[in-house]
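Apologies for my clumsy wording, but are you able to produce some protein sequence, whichever is easiest, and the C-alpha cells describing how it folds?
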Amino acid sequence: MINSGDTAWLLGATALVLFMTLPGLALFYGGLVRSRNVLSVLMQCFAIAAVVSLLWMLVGYSLVFTDGGAAQAWIGGLSKAFLAGITVESVTGTVPESVFAMFQLTFAIITPALIVGAFAERMRFAAMLLFSTLWLLLVYVPVAHWVWGGGWLAQMKFLDFAGGSVVHINAGVAALVAALVIGKRRGFPSQAMTPHNLPAAVTGAGMLWVGWFGFNAGSALAANGSAGMAMLVTHIAAAAGCVAWMAQEWVRFGKPSVLGLVTGMVAGLGTITPASGYVGPGGALAIDDSMDVFPVHGVGGIMGTLLTGVFGAAALGGIGHPDGRTIAAQLGVQLIGTVATIVWAGGMTWLLLKATALVCDLRVTAEEENEGLDLVLHEERGYNITS
C-alpha cells in the first residue's frame, strides 16, 4: 500500500536529483569553461534532460525495470514501453509507480550529462545529441538493469545503493574514452584555459551538494533510518573530500583554491554514492578520493563500489553483507561488477563515438573552436555587456 510519508520524501528527493542537473551541473560545468562556450554547455545539459526524458518514457524505464524473460539477466522487456500500465493506482513498494519512475528518470538524466565535461568546448551539438541517445540506450540502460532491475549483478547481490557503478563508473569511464577519441582542446596545455566564472561554478557545486541528499538518501525509497543514515554519510563524505583536497593543495602549492575545494567535495560525494546505504559514519570518512577530474567520477565510483564490500561489514559499522558473506567474498562480487561496468562502458562508448562519426562530424573545426561554440552552433552569446 502507498505510504504517504515515503511518497512525500521521494517526491522531494526526485526534485533534488533533477536540481542537480538543472541548474546544478549546468552551472558547475558552465562556469568552468571559457566565456565563449558557456551557452553550449548549458544547452547540452538542458537538451540531454529533455531527450532522455522522452527516451525513458518510450522504452528506457521498461527495459530497466520489467521482466525480460529469457534475457532477464541482461535486459528487461517492453511490457511498460510508453509507460503502459502506470496509473494513479499502480504501486512500487510503498510509493506510486509514477513517482518511482520519475525518480529513476532523474538518474538517467544526470549520467549522460556528466559526460559533457569530457568534450566541452569542442564537440558538435548534433553529434552530442546522437551519441547521448545511443549511450543512454546501449550503455546506461543495460547496466542499470544488471544492478537495479534484477539482472545478473543483482542476482549475485552486487551492492550499489545509489549509482556508484550505474552512474559514476559508467559516466567516468565514458568521459575518459570520449576525451581520448575526440582529442584535447586546441592549445591545451600550453595555453592557459582558466574557468571564466568561478562564482557560477561554486554555486553549481553547492547545488550538487544539496541535491545529492536526494540522490543518495532518496535511494532508500522510503522515509526511514536507511535514508537518514545515507544522508548523514553523504554529508560527511562531501566534507571529507573538501578538507582532503584543500589540505593537499595547501601542502603542494602553498595556497588552497576554491576550485580544488569544490572538486574535492564532488569527489567525496561520488565516492560515497554506492556505499551510502550500507556503511556507517566511519566508513564515510574513509571512503574518499583526492585526485583530478576523471577520478572525481570514474576512480571515485570505483573506489566507492569496491570499498562497499569492506565498510558494509557489520564489524566495521555497516549493515552487514548479504547472506552473512565475509568481506573477501563480497569484495569479490564488487570487483566483478566494477570490471564488468568498466569494460562495457568503455568498449561501447568507443564504438558509439565511432558510429556517430560516420553520421556527422564529432568535432568542430579549429576556426570554429577559436570562435566559440556559442556563436558557431547557436548564434548566441553568453554575455552581452557594453561599457
Notes: The two ends are 62 Å apart (CA to CA). Residues 172 and 294 are 6 Å apart (CA to CA). Residues 4-378 form a domain with the Ammonium transporter fold fold (CATH 1.10.3430.10).
